[in-house]
Amino acid sequence: MLNVALFGAGRIGKVHAASVAKNSDAQLLAVVDVHEPSARALAEQYGARVSSQEAVFSDASIDAILICSATNTHADLIEAGARSGKVIFCEKPIDLSLERVKSCLAVVKEHKAKLFVGFNRRFDKNFRALKNALTNGEIGKAELLQISSRDPGPPPLDYIKVSGGLFRDMMIHDLDMACWLMGETPVAVSASASSVVDKKIGEAGDVDTAIVTLEFASGALAVITNSRRASYGYDQRIEVHGEKGMLQAENVLESTLIKSTGDGVVSQKPMYFFLERYEGAYASELESFIQLANGKAEAEVSGEDGERALALADAALRALESGQKQRL
Amino acid sequence: MLNVALFGAGRIGKVHAASVAKNSDAQLLAVVDVHEPSARALAEQYGARVSSQEAVFSDASIDAILICSATNTHADLIEAGARSGKVIFCEKPIDLSLERVKSCLAVVKEHKAKLFVGFNRRFDKNFRALKNALTNGEIGKAELLQISSRDPGPPPLDYIKVSGGLFRDMMIHDLDMACWLMGETPVAVSASASSVVDKKIGEAGDVDTAIVTLEFASGALAVITNSRRASYGYDQRIEVHGEKGMLQAENVLESTLIKSTGDGVVSQKPMYFFLERYEGAYASELESFIQLANGKAEAEVSGEDGERALALADAALRALESGQKQRL
Amino acid sequence: MLNVALFGAGRIGKVHAASVAKNSDAQLLAVVDVHEPSARALAEQYGARVSSQEAVFSDASIDAILICSATNTHADLIEAGARSGKVIFCEKPIDLSLERVKSCLAVVKEHKAKLFVGFNRRFDKNFRALKNALTNGEIGKAELLQISSRDPGPPPLDYIKVSGGLFRDMMIHDLDMACWLMGETPVAVSASASSVVDKKIGEAGDVDTAIVTLEFASGALAVITNSRRASYGYDQRIEVHGEKGMLQAENVLESTLIKSTGDGVVSQKPMYFFLERYEGAYASELESFIQLANGKAEAEVSGEDGERALALADAALRALESGQKQRL
Amino acid sequence: MLNVALFGAGRIGKVHAASVAKNSDAQLLAVVDVHEPSARALAEQYGARVSSQEAVFSDASIDAILICSATNTHADLIEAGARSGKVIFCEKPIDLSLERVKSCLAVVKEHKAKLFVGFNRRFDKNFRALKNALTNGEIGKAELLQISSRDPGPPPLDYIKVSGGLFRDMMIHDLDMACWLMGETPVAVSASASSVVDKKIGEAGDVDTAIVTLEFASGALAVITNSRRASYGYDQRIEVHGEKGMLQAENVLESTLIKSTGDGVVSQKPMYFFLERYEGAYASELESFIQLANGKAEAEVSGEDGERALALADAALRALESGQKQRL
What we know:
Chain A has 2 domains: 2-113, NAD(P)-binding Rossmann-like Domain (Rossmann fold), CATH 3.40.50; 122-281 and 308-327, Dihydrodipicolinate Reductase, domain 2 (2-Layer Sandwich), CATH 3.30.360.10. Chain A is built from 13 helices and 15 strands. Chain A has helices at residues 11-22, 36-45, 53-58, 74-83, 98-110, 125-135, 157-162, 166-169, 171-182, 199-203, 274-277, 279-293, 303-322; strands at 2-7, 26-32, 49-50, 64-67, 87-91, 115-118, 142-150, 188-194, 209-215, 221-227, 235-242, 245-249, 257-261, 264-267, 326-327. Chain A has a 7-stranded mixed β-sheet. A 6-stranded parallel β-sheet of chain A has the order 3-2-1-4-5-6, with helices on both faces. The radius of gyration of chain A is 20 Å and the shape is globular. The model of chain A has no long low-confidence stretch (mean pLDDT 97). Chains in contact: A-B, A-C, A-D, B-C, B-D, C-D.
């Protein structure tokens, strides 16, 4: 039985707490949150105790930690977890600074700690089916990857200002997805972007619509398109064109209902946002983490994966600012 | 907190036990099964005790029973439950004999017992979306209903011999669905059927492929097609044609992956069978039952619904045997 | 070069005249219509002459006739064509009376005339692809056929009164399609119908919504659903369920445009009505007829096919009136 | 009646000759081809005469010319046509050299000649439906355009060597499409490309797989992906993401047949190549040209449109070579 402590009792912390509860190999022992009532409510729901950072890291009965707190606490918590011998699950990103990520991963390495970074989309059953088909050679060599990723609407400007920007906050998922699917790290990055959705996002120093192109040593190319707005719901599609064919993972719709009237043939919208669309992915992700913690599997997403995605986001930003393709 | 006892620790009993465990308003107290090791395994998994019929019905602390045992035990358990004041969930059918169903429901009525019959498909989110659109008048008056229902493969001949036949065992779901969707009870039934899938099914006195047509007093018509075989998986589709348009609930596919090659554009198969396709429906169904048991809602499926579906199956059988449309 | 005379310069006559013009193996010589200006306009467009029945049948330079005039003229024109040695294309039906069809076909047989009946849907590329896949054994033995056929709206009541009724006027296409696809003639017919679309249709002695079930000697079953109304356009779909899978020919949409907004994911409607949907089929049909007339091919649709479809429509009507399955 | 002369009796010349024949407002008078037997065969089919450049340009009875000959003859023929007062249809490109295009268009302008450039895809009914929906404001302001354009297989190396390269030969269609749909000319162009399909294409100095990103002054972005290979057929899709939704024009499939078996749910492939996919577009394009020539409409595609697309292709090539975004 794996004993787990949770940092952060917010939206995503609750998702992972529920996954732990459903898993017969793990149990939630402690919840830590700067907002004590949130910690208490979640702890009570699952029969856990409210705790503190110090108590968790000094408690030898706790095997694993789930870091779902604010981004600026991630790297410190990872290091503390590594030093106290915990198996660590950390929501993306490790940090918004590539330097800080590197120093943090050095500590992880030094203590030979097990670290799993929460790129949840790798666990979506549709994308996984695409990855499996690709790996099985069903379309031969991959030549051209297209990732479309659009949020239903922009986050508050206050969030955007501390988010690290669209490339580090939103596209980082797609950059990881591109590397994971292609089984390669890009050798060049180009970027175009604008704030066509909301000028205030531009005034805040960020963009809301972006196209990033990746080149791989194999000659394969990839393009990621992002938008902070999709009036029809959360748009999450992947397409790989290859030697012998094409693979597409389409949106997951709210239901299979189709209505035909004089206005046309109407299918349902994509599921609203990440909590709905990736509900199953979050559960699979945590199962994978619990297997890692119980020594039954390797980390499916490593700290280095988190570092690579951030490095690509930084390169995209440099490409955007300079108008020059960035060679890596 | 609702205290629940479960009769039958088989495939479907396990599904409902898991739903009870996930519901914070209910808990599983007792499991009864003629095969004691099955009862024990399931009881241990959820911290319940192994029990007996007598003990359950004489235990005042048990509020509700889930009847998931063999069909020929259903009516007796319902009656015992009604007499001892339990709220009753019973998997379909109540019984294969319409006379027995009537006598059983008389006991239920006499004791003013709450009875919920497990027509799980009404709780499928896709069919429910269709029902809601229909009720909301999105296509006006319903005129023509088509239900396609095909199992991935025939059950063993031994099962077929005791199943009551395709109409009572398989189509009974579709007959209930037709009445529920149309909000009417048919006034006439016709039937055509054959054993084109497997002659041995015909030799056993049953059919494996069937078309049943229903007529409603409103002038609306319905047709149900059933097959014991669908090589591409569990085929469960509904289409309603109405005054202002058409509603279709399509199959739920294994994933959204599409592969395009020289052979065509290949989507995934429908989910394999009822446990996969109706996983969410089973959970919603039990939530609805727990709400009934906790006095928060009426029975969404009543004993009379169970009786009506069986009466229609019997009428379809008479129509098949006589070649004469049966007026009800 | 095949010399062709056309009877009937209406909507469908124009379609066939255009097909003749495009075909380098045939030319339109004469047009006959009781409404002389219509005949004149069409004749002028294609460089043909206005003519009369007598002139056509006594003109040895005319090889073939296309009968697109009113239904009650078909049988007489066929007989006159047969007697004067013309190759004959006749729009469905040969006649609304089965007796008259039989006497007409006796004349055709006596003169060994070549007769091609215009069941245009057999030439639709989508249905033909389905037929080919079925014939190639791609789903093994056919077990269950579903034909959905719905017009965008009911014809005028005046037409309905002389149409022969829904079974002989509209479903006759689907009855022919069922026989052609299955490669068998049904052994039993059942029917349910109502006038749920428009009571006046019922008062005129006809129905507007119908379900007809066919049984074949092989054990295969078929169901045809018809409606005189489809608010979303002309609904023409076929589905065959077989031993190893299912074949579906879906509607042809106005374009491939899909619009996703907050209201859903909207595809285009099916093409409006038969002239749009079957434009290609009409052209292919006439190519096939010209090949017949030029001795390069057999009649793809024979007079006997026309007779069979009408006999099935009559049987469906008897089944509807009696409530008794009609064995053939 | 418009009298038309055709230069070039090859594949595309035949397509346009057939369109002229079908149009009641135009007739083909003369055919010119360096390969005299080709000219003769086509002329005979449509009752035209074989002619020469000199004869066509000095023949006052010829109103319009269709230039379907080799690319290196286009600009000279356009100039000759302009000088002799013909209305001119020219297959793309006007020339592979931007300088030559400019000097040619200067001659056109000087003689106030009417010139129509054959960007046939603008006339595809699916893309036109998308353009109309966009123009009607159905998704508000356009923000993100994606054009996927892939040929079924690479052309012969000999062709590639004289083609001007993928950007000028193949992507030029997509560059025109992007400008036409967005109603803007890009202000910046980036490019990534490789020869991952066939190294020999790279050795010949060209690429076979490419991603080009366009930026517009409005803040909108566009990405074009091209591949010389699509094992599943001709892949021609467009997607526009906007303020209020998304528009997608999907591939046109060979038929609507869907086959479901144990291997999945198989739809048909996209139509094989441009002659099949754009058959209707070619016909509409020539109708539009004939309307221009008859003074009933303006040129839907102008010489300047041809120049702009080539300038963008050249800019994409410079971006690829330099790794630097090209500002225009």
